[in-house]
Amino acid sequence: MPDSVQTHAAPNPQPQDAFRIPRFAGLPTFMRLPMVESPVGIDIGLVGVPFDGGTTNRAGARHGPREMRNASSLMRRVHHPSGVAPYDLARIADLGDSPVNPIDVLDSLRLITGFFGTLKAAGTIPVTAGGDHLISLPILRALAADGPVGMIHFDSHSDTNDRYFGDNRYTHGTPFRRAVEEGLLDPKRVVQIGIRGSLGTANDFDFARAAGFRIVFIEEFAERRPEEIMDEARAIVGDGPVYISFDVDGIDPSQTPGTGTPEIGGYTTAEAQRMVRKLAGLNIVGADVVEVSPPFDIGNMTSLVGATLMFELMCVIAGNMKR
Amino acid sequence: MPDSVQTHAAPNPQPQDAFRIPRFAGLPTFMRLPMVESPVGIDIGLVGVPFDGGTTNRAGARHGPREMRNASSLMRRVHHPSGVAPYDLARIADLGDSPVNPIDVLDSLRLITGFFGTLKAAGTIPVTAGGDHLISLPILRALAADGPVGMIHFDSHSDTNDRYFGDNRYTHGTPFRRAVEEGLLDPKRVVQIGIRGSLGTANDFDFARAAGFRIVFIEEFAERRPEEIMDEARAIVGDGPVYISFDVDGIDPSQTPGTGTPEIGGYTTAEAQRMVRKLAGLNIVGADVVEVSPPFDIGNMTSLVGATLMFELMCVIAGNMKR
Amino acid sequence: MPDSVQTHAAPNPQPQDAFRIPRFAGLPTFMRLPMVESPVGIDIGLVGVPFDGGTTNRAGARHGPREMRNASSLMRRVHHPSGVAPYDLARIADLGDSPVNPIDVLDSLRLITGFFGTLKAAGTIPVTAGGDHLISLPILRALAADGPVGMIHFDSHSDTNDRYFGDNRYTHGTPFRRAVEEGLLDPKRVVQIGIRGSLGTANDFDFARAAGFRIVFIEEFAERRPEEIMDEARAIVGDGPVYISFDVDGIDPSQTPGTGTPEIGGYTTAEAQRMVRKLAGLNIVGADVVEVSPPFDIGNMTSLVGATLMFELMCVIAGNMKR
Amino acid sequence: MPDSVQTHAAPNPQPQDAFRIPRFAGLPTFMRLPMVESPVGIDIGLVGVPFDGGTTNRAGARHGPREMRNASSLMRRVHHPSGVAPYDLARIADLGDSPVNPIDVLDSLRLITGFFGTLKAAGTIPVTAGGDHLISLPILRALAADGPVGMIHFDSHSDTNDRYFGDNRYTHGTPFRRAVEEGLLDPKRVVQIGIRGSLGTANDFDFARAAGFRIVFIEEFAERRPEEIMDEARAIVGDGPVYISFDVDGIDPSQTPGTGTPEIGGYTTAEAQRMVRKLAGLNIVGADVVEVSPPFDIGNMTSLVGATLMFELMCVIAGNMKR
Amino acid sequence: MPDSVQTHAAPNPQPQDAFRIPRFAGLPTFMRLPMVESPVGIDIGLVGVPFDGGTTNRAGARHGPREMRNASSLMRRVHHPSGVAPYDLARIADLGDSPVNPIDVLDSLRLITGFFGTLKAAGTIPVTAGGDHLISLPILRALAADGPVGMIHFDSHSDTNDRYFGDNRYTHGTPFRRAVEEGLLDPKRVVQIGIRGSLGTANDFDFARAAGFRIVFIEEFAERRPEEIMDEARAIVGDGPVYISFDVDGIDPSQTPGTGTPEIGGYTTAEAQRMVRKLAGLNIVGADVVEVSPPFDIGNMTSLVGATLMFELMCVIAGNMKR
Amino acid sequence: MPDSVQTHAAPNPQPQDAFRIPRFAGLPTFMRLPMVESPVGIDIGLVGVPFDGGTTNRAGARHGPREMRNASSLMRRVHHPSGVAPYDLARIADLGDSPVNPIDVLDSLRLITGFFGTLKAAGTIPVTAGGDHLISLPILRALAADGPVGMIHFDSHSDTNDRYFGDNRYTHGTPFRRAVEEGLLDPKRVVQIGIRGSLGTANDFDFARAAGFRIVFIEEFAERRPEEIMDEARAIVGDGPVYISFDVDGIDPSQTPGTGTPEIGGYTTAEAQRMVRKLAGLNIVGADVVEVSPPFDIGNMTSLVGATLMFELMCVIAGNMKR
């Protein structure tokens, strides 16, 4: 395949050529892209947030970025169904990991917000590998600094609990309650898809409903086509800025076993791909793939799903940059 | 979450509060409920039968109760789709494990029947974690002591073989032939769902068919909605007493790999949940989840499915107790 | 089950009787059939090709035949949906493994072609356990020695690349371009089903399309019933000789994790079974199940899928032999 | 074995009889002993501290108590080399888990100290299953409330670092510096055995040495018999109260792979047993086994080592109670 | 390596040549030797006994023969330290598996004794892959039919318990009490090496000691060279017929994790090899390697140890046949 | 920890500071050092050679460099027993992976020699992560271009076979016969330590012995102290240039299970460390750690051993640079 890499436009960063350097060779940057230190001039930044200090049960998502990078070596250059060639359309790079403090939640929140503030300042759209779901809060603090954003949220949990273990307000079960309270999310422009699992109390969804979230429970999901649900979601979030948050436990745990709070009966990766592809054209300000927990993974199955979802999200965002 | 546990009615046993005691802490009783020694006064008893002496190939289901208890720590308090709050509606407890004899099949059958006889005498409905499928026979001997019951049976195998290895009548492939012969099952009120896999002989289903079982092969299942199939099953079992037996190998082995006799091409856990939920209102005298074999499991995936099915069955039965 | 094995017609080879010899006992030949040295007199030969020297990333398929044999002990004697009792209809045996050279690709190609030439000479139809996908090329060189054949090809990749790593023409990504170039495949009678995954370049399918392959991408697959797709495939390959090649990465990696190039979003094993069953009546000259890589497998899940697909293919071919 | 359990003195709690109830049955309390809620009247309390919030790299020790309980089902009743029958000599029970707060380090330290204060008040000697090594600090705050204690410390790390990640004083790398600073340990009566691994700086041991710890590096260990080293350790700690802390990473990671900071080249479990047995007769106020991290374990190997070490420590302490 | 296989004397069975047929190819017979149906004319028979019905806790040893066969493909042709070329010295073959009945202990005992009786009648010395340790009893019933034999027994347990679970006399904890009672073993010529682990009661060894067994506990083992211990063992068993029984749980569980009753602190595989090699010249009537339990194994580590011990034992016995 | 990294001499590359950036964060370069593209100015180059095309049985070592890099994040900055602070003494960096061709052995040999030729030209001493053992040959072709070197070789195999599979001269069993034939090794200055395992023929060591290699079989190793053996080895290799080759299968497979050709009964990692440390002061021209095969590894145990051995070798070489 002598004509592969060289034909790409020179200025954009390109992945290593798998026809010359085998996929198992070299450093596992995201998508085998160059790692750069500054977001300046980068359109889409692939970023890790290796933090799981908000996890109340089975942690391990701190190892998610490293293993999603590892698995992402299997991603190639072009998104077939859409025809998007992301590296032709956008300057994309691995921007490394956000600083975190593994033994201090509040310090970590500050560090993460600071890191993403730099991306926002540079005009770089982040596609983030978590980390547990608490990381979405400090990311939103950076990205929604100018005003609330909408959100399409794939998950089996609403993550709008209030407190745990006494008076703890910052856990991976509370980010979106905090984000609403802090004015980071416009609750009328929030859609949650795939919610399921047993509840702590019958009132678990009271906050989300009162705030105005649209919750698509898995039972509703099972009755409709993914595309239909996404059409509704697109109508709800509209043209304004929107954040995409993908918790891999939205997917069935047979496909994403490496996660801290698995709930059986989820959607498939194929359905997830169909939904993500329907995000094309939205005004996406950032995206994350969270709750990949390698110590609980088997055969790196979940890391591969996470890396593929990052690729899909990256292609959607790059496709928006088509001229 | 100051309003969670304390608001429950005092007399009913309650799980430990996960907002105060993390899910990984404490002893893994079923659903983190209290373990009690006597079934007296208990409406629904969660029970283990750690026996796999009827297994003709890959054993290990003896370890099922322990690992399903372990996985059940992830279950919370309320069944979302139905709104059933089981611990508000019924007195539910972990009743421990039935005595068994790991090296003597016939002694085990006696011990198990004795244990379940006590539950029946106390009016306690058992939801049992197996064990291999042979355990359904001694359970039925206790529960159907007064007369035959119907059965809805989820499985990839009919389990109506006659003999193995010479003249052995009691294996995990024979319980329901024995149960019919012994007058424990009313064969006209038996439905088997998900049957598939290669056959030993072309006559494998002769006994079941002659007896009057309704067998829904996986090929028929694939053509119909789970709810439709369950409507038919409900009509067949009617208002009389019915036993529910769920062999996890009915589900696809990618979702329940930890089982002794996997057959590819099964239904999904989501379909299983939809079917179990359609059991609401039936006159259920007991239920089991069998053939979870932890030594063959990966990432405790199958134990989680088993524990969740126990939760689902428990909620159906508790829902029947609504006043 | 005293009447099981003995009632079969004497001359045909029969699997060991699982009612007398447990499935975990004895040597793991394919389907617990006798292993014979010569194909003469054998209608269907189950064969291993333990070669993965064409693998450009994650190898291990050389161990596929051994582990598929191991898993095939779970197969019984009769195909339930079709009623085919293969060992009554055909003389079927394990013919052992083709010779290979693990450190020399070209020598392996020669050795494999030689081995399958002997089968062809004997009139034996091979059902092969790979090995990586490159092995289909030397098999076709033997089976299509008299003229091009059609092919129904289940896979996530088209495997029609040209060269890798300089000028290497023989890898598991190139067999079907070579087969067309060498006149082994009639490209107008080739159907590929399940193709997906990111592409190396936007032109990845140019060769296949120009040659006339019918490619059913996974997105199209998701919109149609498997039976519909197979009806079209049957029309395309017609009555002429056809080869069946099943790369297990066509299936979703949650069901076939043990493979070198997993792509999320695949079809299910149940859909695979439905498709394979629609091959009945075609003029099948041979079939393979490839890219089972045990070192990457978990819980032997993929080996079981591979062994079951071999059983399904064998039953289809035996069913054609019904008089 | 009809004479087994019943011959034991009635008042002492006894493990379940494995000749009647198989080891895989029932709840996995420590050593299959009764779980009791209050330490009053209990001589030796087996306790879990499911906390790993001090872990700076690979966490998971929060799951240690549950899996060590699980593995401890393999322990029987009598310590052969010493002849100690612990349940004849002492009242021993599973006292459950200390409360912890998985997302708040300082709150956890308070909760743990409170829990162990109750044991101390009751005169119960704890044998604790961690948790990461930070838990030894709050335990010492309770047990050394009356004055500093000595310590024999098995580990590959000295755990006397000062701060991490800015100004964080409480991690699993700092407990024994804090314990010295707080007057909980008498540094002249502290022995550390098995220290090894690469260092952060050449000054890593300055604090410990200046304070007066006796450090037995693994290189010295390799040159001497374990018994010799323990004779010296016994002389150093003398007759005063002494705490035993066993970090399983002191042992070679081929025997304790399930730990967060493995260092190759450690001592064997047999050597560990020989050392623990030499603790007999010391004035032991408590003991812990820490850093068992089940998500990183393989085949529960490390949990079994941890459970066995707890049994060995319990027998040493019970042996001291011989009249 | 053109001069390898062909130079061997024609009449003796030979393993497949790994310089021509890779080790991963072909059927996994023991040592890649031919499988033959009759022991007649075979000097040393490699045999499987896939039975674990005597296991009181963690079963799985029924799968031992298959996986030890699989692992034995790594064995080559010549024993380096002794220079023994077994296939030059003796006719050795894989004789397949003994018949067993997985759900009937007593029937299995009968079947196994029958099978080994045939070997004894043919003058074939068996080297057996278990199976749990109960299988040594029916083997001894065949091999010691003419009178009691001595035994060198490597194990962590004495296996001389009396009864379990009521009145059950036949479990993997009782074979050698039964063998003494039945006059199969001469208790004055029995040596047990490596015994350790916690005891059920202080009287656990009373039977063995009263009978006259020489027990080498692991504590004594640790103080002496393996060769010294074996010199004593050789003196004890003398020139009379002796059976060798190797329970892999004698070895440390970090080297043989795949076993049902692991006890930490065992000897190493290197020490095991040194001991086995000291058996040269004894009048060995048979040998077994038992308690390899593949479902609990990790990375086939234990199967490899088991297969290597079989090779070592086979070489010792073949070495005795040197002229 | 403001005083940690910054105090190091500015010009030398330094690992990331683990007191600020957690070990699980960031890209897994070797030892968390900077990756640089050119060897110019680098004293010691850490390099990967992801090639296993010479493996005749169980491959996977191609994935070794990636996973050894991953595991090397656990290495800190100072070698405690020697006091060597390598990054103070030498300019050390990750130089990335050598180019390889996964499907062409001869092309790979050329590419590897070319890559290491560049290092030699720059005066950079390579410490290499393999790859299978064949890679030592092309490395020696570069490093011994000026004349033969000595070698200290840790392994369970002599790797001096001649041919495999017909006439194949280049496999992981043949590199050191080729190296002698090509004049790259001075056979009188070669020491092999740990050799063991069954042999293909009684003549397996004829070449090595005739050439003059000193072979320390494991039986001899067991009788002597590692330091003694190394004193002899040092005398043999003398002051001339010497290459160090460490095949992790020299170590016992319970400590390095992730390797292609495990042989039980090896030395321990502690013994390996003691031997490597005795290399100090030798005129080392390069070193490799080979045959780490991640697909066969469990819990990354072998990768950690491999990474630690690289650290040890690097420290020895850096220690030689002390002024």
From TrEMBL, chains A, B, C, D, E, F:
Protein family: Belongs to the arginase family. Agmatinase subfamily.
GO molecular function list: agmatinase activity
UniProt protein name: Agmatinase
UniProt KW keywords: Hydrolase, Metal-binding
InterPro entries: Agmatinase-rel, Ureohydrolase, Ureohydrolase_dom_sf, Ureohydrolase_Mn_BS
Residue ranges that the Swiss-Prot or TrEMBL entry lists as coiled coil: none
Domain of life: Bacteria
E.C. designation(s): 3.5.3.11
